[in-house]
Write a structure and sequence with these properties.
- This protein has about 250 residues and is of the alpha/beta class.
- It has 2 domains: about 180 residues, 3-Layer(aba) Sandwich (Rossmann fold), CATH 3.40.50; about 55 residues, no CATH class.
- The chain is about 35% helix and about 10% strand.
- It has a 6-stranded parallel sheet, sandwiched between helices.
- Pfam families: Abhydrolase_6.
- InterPro entries: AB_hydrolase_1, AB_hydrolase_fold.
- It comes from Volvox carteri f. nagariensis.
- This is AB hydrolase-1 domain-containing protein.
Length: about 250
């Protein structure tokens, strides 16, 4: 397919954009998925809740190939999604530490059973935006323990400035998930998670089957990649190059 255009949805730009630009990719950052311009349809990368935006976009995008999903049979029909064909097509979609099509409710319950204290910190961190004022909260929610202090300080300021309001209305999101099953013409998907992620757990990335909540890799009929020693903000974290290298390998195979 020789895709050379990459667009990032709600993704930090500091590391990934120069990484892929120097490797010959036309790399763009924007707040919503839209192909625009000429040439081959782009690959769109969604991080965290941005991944859920990309999933909804795909439900309304036109077919780009004969790629078929091998996802298991879906649960009872959820609320309708966008009209297929109403959005420009994509050549592929990459999901980095992305909220799965089942939303975040099941993840919250898993975190609560696994670590009640951390679950409360996570919930309060997003409600009160403690990550914007507390370096400890910012590190616990988004980064590894060995991220240098100067980078943590810079990234905390970035997150505080980039998140003055909620990206998604959670009540609206909960009313729309689980998402409908993907079209048989959904673009190829890449799904990556981080083992130290305190926002999106490993089950949301690569657990199998709709019976487990429609986790993302199963949803698109692919195999998820789970990287050790990496936290939720995998595009900024200490070992971000590992995530970039995995994504680059997948892009090269399209």
């Amino acid at each position: 397919m020789n895709v050379r255009r990459v667009q990032m949805v709600t993704c930090p730009q500091e590391n990934f954009m120069p990484y892929f630009s120097t490797r010959g990719y036309d790399t763009y950052a924007q707040d919503s998925a839209a192909s625009g311009g000429g040439g081959r349809a782009p690959v769109v990368i969604g991080h965290s809740f941005g991944g859920l935006i990309v999933q909804k976009y795909i439900l309304g995008s036109a077919a780009t190939s004969s790629h078929c999903s091998s996802a298991s049979p879906p649960p009872p029909p959820p609320p309708p999604g966008p009209t297929p064909g109403s959005f420009p097509p994509l050549s592929g979609a990459a999901f980095l530490c992305s909220v799965p099509p089942s939303g975040n409710k099941q993840m919250v319950m898993r975190f609560l059973r696994r670590d009640p204290i951390m679950s409360l910190k996570l919930t309060w961190g997003f409600i009160a935006r403690t990550f914007a004022s507390s370096r400890t909260a910012c590190r616990e929610l988004f980064f590894s323990s060995d991220l240098p202090e100067d980078k943590l300080d810079r990234y905390q300021k970035f997150l505080a400035a980039a998140s003055p309001t909620r990206l998604l209305d959670l009540r609206d999101m909960n009313a729309q998930v689980p998402l409908p099953p993907p079209s048989p013409h959904a673009p190829p998907a890449f799904v990556l998670g981080a083992a130290q992620d305190t926002v999106v757990d490993p089950e949301a990335v690569q657990a199998s089957g709709w019976a487990r909540g429609g986790e993302l890799a199963s949803y698109y009929g692919t195999q998820g990649v789970l990287l050790q020693d990496l936290a939720h903000d995998c595009m900024l974290d200490t070992r971000w190059q590992r995530a970039a290298a995995e994504l680059e390998t997948w892009l090269a195979a399209l």
